[in-house]
Structures are given as structure tokens and as C-alpha cells.
TrEMBL record:
InterPro entries: Aminoacid_DH-like_N_sf, NAD(P)-bd_dom_sf, THF_DH/CycHdrlase, THF_DH/CycHdrlase_cat_dom, THF_DH/CycHdrlase_NAD-bd_dom. Belongs to the tetrahydrofolate dehydrogenase/cyclohydrolase family. This is Bifunctional protein FolD. Keywords: Hydrolase, Multifunctional enzyme, NADP, One-carbon metabolism, Oxidoreductase, Photorespiration. The lineage of its organism: Eukaryota, Viridiplantae, Streptophyta, Embryophyta, Tracheophyta. Pathway: One-carbon metabolism; tetrahydrofolate interconversion.
């Protein structure tokens, strides 16, 4: 399929951004998800969490001292952990999306279109893009791929972004990260149209996610996937201590913001955190997105913790088909002995993340068609 390239490039200037922010609620359209309008509203409330006021209960002046009971029975043996099957959950979501893509085509005579920009030849990035394109094909979403060499200029990438921004047949744009070091990643991501930012990395989408009472157009896919896994397994979040390991804009930051929307008490652990294992050991929920294989050991976790492992770290393996295998941030064999629920790698967060990308792309297509009516 031939790609139509526009002329020139550009990104929102600071005055434009400040003007958008100053307009208040007009800048934060309601997030949409797959389904009818009522269903979309319910899904948005579910993923963004209940809007509860911060009302502090007065603490008692003194606490009763517990009376020791020498006859108290021993606690029961811990139950086997739940292995959170991301593949199964992703299959359910993708089946739902596939049905709505058919309905979308019937209603509007169009199909959703996702444009992917891939720069360079990193093996992991190529693998991820291949998975995303296959997933699009499986549910009936059209995908376009602009593949640029590692040596290309930043302007070349911005030119691709701008041409997709200007193409009305394209509903979602994804710039595969990471970009080469000689490029300004923030500048390129900010150039993606707010209404096509299906990765959710546009400054206004991130800003609206951070502000209670406002809704971003799109939520970053990996963060949304983490919440989907927790909510679908009925993990209680309100008041729970959640530790997020890693603070990247792709996973750590938006995940911590979403957890706060659900009224969890959130701690962020990063490379400069002192005694990270002690902080992590206090958590009811651990979400690791550090990008370091086997960083989180069993000794970092308290019994009964829920572990969401976002890490996908390639480890050389000559016996593997591609010469490497993926492992998570969490040492699975140790963590599974103490966790009450845990995601495997692969087969945990990854498939659901791709499903969230498909959902965001369909939402973008529906919003574009509604706006044009």
C-alpha cells in the first residue's frame, strides 16, 4: 500500500499548548471505549476508578491493647498462587473488538487504520511491531508501516508523523519506542495529533490522566493493561499499598497515576531509591517495569502480594528460535512461592497491552467518524 506523504512537519508550540490547557473542559473530551455510548461511559469509569472525596476519619486517641491468646490456632497454609493468564484475557478483549470493528464498518463504511512508525533495526522493536500488525489483521484493523533507517534524521521521522496526522484515513499513530539516541523523543511524541495518539503519550493526555476529574482521550496501553489485569481478577485497590518499580512515561508514570485514580497508596521505586527491597516488601501490589531481568527476588516480596511483571527483557538463548528468550523483572520461580497472584513473562501483560492498543485505535476511529458527522 502506497503511503501519501505530506509536506513539512511541525509540533504544537508552547503558546498553543498553554491556550489548550487554559480552555478547561473543552480540552479533555470524554474517553471512549469499545461499545455503545452507555457501555463506553461505564468502561471509562471502571478503568479510571471511582471519584471518591478525600475525607479523613479522625484517629482514636488510644488504641486497645490486644489480649494474647495462647490457644490461637496456627494460620492455614497459603493457597497456591493464581497465575494471571494475560493471553486468555487478551483473547476475550480482542474477540469483543473484532465484533465492534464489523459493526463500525457496517455503520460508517470504513475500517479503523493504525499507522506505525519504526526507526532502526532493533530486534525487540521489530518483534513488537510484528505482533501489533498481526493483532490488527486478526481483528480487522488496517495497519500501515513506515520503516525508517537508524541513520535517518529527526526531521524524517517528524515528516512521517505529520503526513499521517494529515491523512484523514489514518485514525491512530504509534511511534515505536525507543527511538535512536540522536533523536528528541519528546519532540516527536508531542508532534503526534492528540486525536490520533493511541499510545497515550501526548502531553495533554498524560496531563489529563494526572488530574482528578479529567479524562484523557487515550490512556497508555501498558498502564491500561495492568489495571485491566487487576480489575478482571477483582484485586481490591482502594487503600492498598502499591509499589511501582520504574518511572518511565511508557509504564511506570501512567501506571502510578491510574493506581492513584483507584485510591491506592502508591510508592515509586527507581534506580536512585535507597533500600528498594525494604519498600517493596511492604507492598500489597507490586508492578515492576524497570527493564532489568530478575531484579525483584522472592526476598523483596511479602506473602500474599499481587505481582504484575511488565518487564520483557531479552536474554540470549542459543536454543531458542530467535536466539533469545524473554524474561521478566521478577524472578518468577522465587516470587511464585510467596505471591497470591502473579503474571508470567511472556503471556502476562504483553498480550493485554496489544489488546489495549487495538481498543484505543477503534476508539480513535469512532471519535473521528462522530466528529465528521
Amino acid at each position: 500500500m502506497a503511503l501519501r506523504w505530506g509536506r513539512g512537519w511541525g509540533s504544537a508550540s508552547a503558546p498553543v499548548l498553554f491556550s489548550l490547557l487554559a480552555r478547561g473542559r473543552r480540552c479533555h473530551p470524554t474517553i471512549t471505549t469499545v461499545g455503545s455510548s452507555k457501555e463506553e461511559e461505564e468502561d471509562a469509569r471502571a478503568i479510571l476508578g471511582p471519584d471518591l472525596p478525600d475525607i479523613w476519619s479522625p484517629l482514636p486517641t488510644s488504641l486497645p491493647r490486644p489480649i494474647p491468646n495462647p490457644m490461637r490456632p496456627l494460620p492455614p497454609a497459603p493457597a497456591p498462587p493464581t497465575i494471571i493468564d494475560g493471553k486468555s484475557i487478551a483473547h476475550q478483549i480482542r474477540s469483543h473488538i473484532s465484533t465492534h470493528v464489523i459493526n463500525f464498518k457496517t455503520s460508517y463504511g470504513k475500517v479503523p487504520v493504525l499507522a506505525v512508525i519504526l526507526v532502526g533495526h532493533r530486534r525487540d522493536s521489530q518483534t513488537y511491531v510484528r505482533y501489533k500488525i498481526k493483532a490488527c489483521n486478526d481483528v480487522g484493523i488496517t495497519s500501515l508501516l513506515a520503516q525508517l533507517p537508524h541513520s535517518c534524521s529527526e526531521d524524517d521521522v517528524l515528516h512521517s508523523v505529520t503526513s499521517f496526522n494529515q491523512d484523514p484515513s489514518v485514525h491512530g499513530i504509534l511511534v515505536q519506542l525507543p527511538l535512536p539516541q540522536h533523536m528528541d523523543e519528546e519532540r516527536i511524541l508531542a508532534a503526534v495529533s492528540l486525536h490520533k495518539d493511541v499510545d497515550g503519550f501526548h502531553p495533554l493526555n498524560v496531563g489529563n490522566l494526572a488530574l482528578r476529574g479529567r479524562r484523557p482521550l487515550f490512556i497508555p496501553c501498558a498502564a491500561k493493561a495492568c489495571l485491566q489485569l487487576l480489575l478482571r481478577h477483582q484485586i481490591d485497590l482502594v487503600g492498598k499499598h502499591a509499589v511501582v518499580i520504574g518511572r518511565s512515561k511508557v509504564v511506570g508514570l501512567p501506571t502510578s497515576l491510574l493506581l492513584q485514580r483507584h485510591h491506592a497508596t502508591v510508592s515509586i521505586v527507581h534506580a536512585f531509591t535507597h533500600r528498594p527491597e525494604e519498600i517493596t516488601r511492604e507492598a500489597d501490589i507490586v508492578i515492576s517495569a524497570a527493564g532489568v531481568a530478575n531484579l525483584v527476588r522472592g526476598s523483596w516480596l511479602k506473602r500474599g502480594v499481587v505481582v504484575i511483571d511488565v518487564g520483557t527483557n531479552p536474554i540470549e538463548d542459543p536454543d531458542s528460535e530467535h536466539g533469545y528468550r524473554l524474561t521478566g523483572d521478577v524472578h518468577f520461580d522465587e516470587a511464585v512461592k510467596v505471591a497470591s497472584a502473579i503474571t508470567p513473562v511472556p503471556g502476562g501483560v504483553g498480550p493485554v497491552t496489544i489488546a489495549m492498543l487495538l481498543s484505543n485505535t477503534l476508539d480513535a476511529a469512532k471519535e473521528a467518524c462522530r466528529s465528521s458527522v
